[in-house]
Amino acid sequence: MYEDFLPLVQKPARYINTEINAVHKDHASVRTSVCLFFPDAYEVGMSHLGIRILYDILNRREDTVCERVFSPWTDYEEKLRSSGRPLRSLESNTPLSEFDIIGISLQYELSYTNILAGLELAGIPVRAQDRSDSHPLVVAGGPCAVNPEPLSDFIDVFFIGEAEEAVHELVELRQQYPSRQQFLREAAGREGFYVTAPGPTPVRRRYINDIDAAPYPERPLLPLLKPVHDRVSVEIARGCIRGCRFCQAGIIYRPFRERSPERIRDILHSSLACTGYEELSLASLSSGDHSAIEPLIVELMKTYRDSRVSVSLPSLRVGTLTPAMIAAIAETRKTGFTLAPEAGTERLRRVINKPVSDPDLIDAAETIFASGWSVVKLYFMVGLPTETDEDLDGIIRLGSELLARGKRVSKRHIQINISVSTFVPKPHTPFQWSGQASLDEIRRKQAYLAKGLRKRGINLKLHDPETSLLEAVFARGDRTLGRVLEEAFRRGCRFDGWTECFDFGKWSGAFAACGMDPSVLACRSFTLDDALPWDHIKTGVTKQFLKEEYQRAAAAEITENCRTECMHCGIGCGDGGTRELGVPVPPSREPKAAVSGASGRQAAPPVATTRIRMKFSKTGRVRFLSHLDFMVLLHRCAVRAGVPVAYSQGFNPHPRIAFGPALSVGIESEAEYLDMDTDPFVDLLQVTKDLNNSLPEGIRILESRIVPHSAPSLSGCISRYDYRVAVPEAMAGSLADRVARFLERPSIIVTKEGRSKDLRPCIVAMGVSVSSGGEGLLLTLRDHGQVRPRVHDVVAQCFETGPEQTLQFRIKRVGMYCQTPDGWASPMDGESQEGRKKLP
Fold it and tell me: Which residues of 699-725 are buried (b: 16+ CB within 10 A; e: fewer)?
């Protein structure tokens, strides 16, 4: 990426490429280069487990380099376009057009325009037919690839299925057939590869038989910018034994396969040790269906309790949630607990094949509240086939009943958060023939719920129906939608899954320009005999099975889970997981002995602690990391280094690490400070060395010493700051005269958010410095009364520049001082006479 853009864009940490455990290889030393493109923002893409797995697999190959790129946010895209520079990879800053393969992850239909934008920004022709041998191969896979047709004009090859094994085949095919046409001809004959050029041809989904033996990252990437899901995540099972009729994932990830408890423990042990996370997630479509889930949770809680690692299960069905599991999870910090009834009545739950009774749901929620949680989140959908207002009343009734039960059993303030999305019919599900409810009907249903749930203690969140409309259009669309996608992309549609970016007016204009009506496309129903645009993609589940499930839904009949009764869906496993395809692991296995030290972590130290004060530098690209993200990073690095950090007491303990005055994003420093409370018997030199070994490039502990607990806090005692400011050459003329005139001003008024403050009393000294890099400023500021000066404000006033021009000054904080009765002292020397300075 381009460092000169970073001061000028939102969240520059999206682009800085200094993550812990990232892989950097010399392109000249490998045969094949792959760039994984996630068409959404960094914090969304880095939450996705699949891209981490493929990144690890490809980089294990000695002949391959794998790097990443995420969709640049709209402000960064504007900079790329205005400068004419190409989109580049994160790790090596290589233009995407120079890679051999671009691998695109298709997770969400509303990211499709980002794909087109990324290709164009990279200088790669947007349409596949316009590419030559000089361009990378554009390969796409993921759940949305089970209906590849809307994107077929833009993708060279789709991969259908699970890629852990097939990704090697892809690389080797590229090495063997450097010619685009030769590669496409050869790939077209391989299982799982769908080459779009000839038109729809039958392709069977590929999957791996044994996920226990499948590769998994031993050193997962640790993002510096907080991702959406900020935790260690291990996939404990793939597929689902349930048959929820709205759920596409439950079909396209069949058969059900489990990862063994031993393998799960090994993955968690190594991942926690090299990341420093304090939360682990046991991920699957239905975590409670793992045959060893209860003893596994209990064991993990026991293993990690003292090291303050919490366990979350993001996909728990009410019917699999036991009191023992709730009690085990309750032993660590509690945020919220999520339940997903999906529908408001038992009748409608039978229609969607999610047979959860109201009493079971209420009893589960009551147990959750009694175990200490105060917030429960409920997921529902509206617009499901056969839904009536009585089903909406069921949502209102459940929300009210759960609130009442929570108040009855808990002394805390109870909060029920109800999230309501719009049903989107998906390909390869029993509801693929159903049309979506109209926008007017969805809005009516949402208003009905809003009126019925308007009460204290219930918070209702309604999903935007227009985005669901577009999701339905592209989920079940055909090749004609390629024209609409390209038109919407040209009109500026980007990040359509983000509320602040979504513009339905642009989309409506794009559809109108192509002579299409999105409402007609989303709401259309198919007959059971119709040919569907995705029929040539064979998931392994037969169309006949889906038809039978569609008919059972109309009759509100339940289909038992795969372990109870095999319904012969076509996948061929016979019992929800054969020995070849992932037999359920017997729960009677002897638990593996807990790892000593729980992933190298130290238990919380005793009440008696030692306070260590550290001076550190923050330079290079890491200067674009926000203060909040830096605080989280520092703590995780301390955990990785095995530093026994003390925690506060109370309901939600936090590490006792305190920082000096925050450094603004984009400013470097060689004099930052922090206080850390630790075990009183730590070796100070060893702690400093271990911490430096765990910190990313650009952050370095320069000095450490033990200070008494009575020492003034850093934020309370530091009030003087030295800066060195590099002045752009265009503004450096007559610098001494400019500084002299500036210092003659009796007042320097800055107004922000309607409040004015005078910075002149805060300016202690300002002078010109000369170095090999040219002329610059030496600037000393101090707090005055309630005014804490921002160096950018002083620079802007001195040079009469706007916000964007001011951010182009390279600024470094070179000193901070505390005021003492005898003068000014470094925070490292505040308790002694050493280092005290007689400063004006």
Answer: bebeebeebeeeeeebeebbbbbbbbb
